[in-house]
Amino acid sequence: MAWEWSHSAEAYDFARDFLGEKMAREELVIMAAEWDTFDRGKVEGAPAFDQEFYKERLAFYAGHAIETLTEKIWARMEEQRTCTNGGFKLWGCPYGCARHMVPVDND
Q1: 65 φ/ψ angles, rounded to the nearest 5 degrees
Q2: Ranges of each domain in the chain
Q3: Would the pTM of this model clear 0.85, i.e. be above it?
Q4: pLDDT, tens digit, for every residue of 77-89?
């Protein structure tokens, strides 16, 4: 089960900083590619998860700066506004992958 965001401004600042400063660059590339693949799955006739498209997006984002990846991912996170049950971590990708959870504080 997932919840919708309902946190303080400080929690969002912490999460955004964590995303850009603590997440590995390789994970940011994967997360950005997952968001694009998720969107592609909404197109009529497209597979739910297009593996070839995903690989293309991984290659596309491989050369992007951390700041650019962070901005893209954060914008998508804000649109979806999904977090874990209890609100302790925000979903950094559309699928709720455990390794892509972004904490809202140091605890």
Answers
A1: -70, 150
A2: 2-103
A3: yes
A4: 999 999 998 888 9
